[in-house]
Amino acid sequence: MKNNSQTNKSYLKFTLLAMTLAGSALSAQAFAAEDLSDATQSAYATSFKELDLDGSKTLTEAEIKEEKLFAKHFAVADKDNDGTLDEQEYTNYKSKSEQKAVKRVVKDSVITSKVKSVLLRDEGLKSLKVSVKTNHGVVLLSGFVETEDQIKQAGRVASEIEGVKAVENSLLIKKE
Fold first, then answer.
1. Residue 92 and residue 112 in one domain
2. Is 128 found in the same domain as 84?
3. CA–CA separation, 169 and 146 (whole Å)
């Protein structure tokens, strides 16, 4: 039987090992995030240089017109209002735009998951195969159900989820 001193030493070794492993994992995540950020910045710089046809280190509306994002929002990205975008303006606007898009996709995914979860818990709907998709907060329900009440219930359930802007209920009653 181990005495308290041996138990404490074992516990201490285990704790130190766990802390070391956790620290290593965090360091690896930090380096990965740094590498990702560097890679993104490098991709933006490469893209900027490819668009800078005249080598002026700025982009005009004519040079950037092929990129949909800037075709519509050039003036907003041009923070110093000089009629051109330098690499910093280009990178900042593109990065913020991509971050917004990622946040929207994540929000839509969360809404889809919540709707599916509630549908699965609902006694009158859980056995049905209802497809749920979300785009910009608009939930699309599709599939086949057995009754008109189930169509209404699925739509009601989806509309009550936080973040849902509208529900397009395309559920159909199964024909026997």
1. no
2. no
3. 15
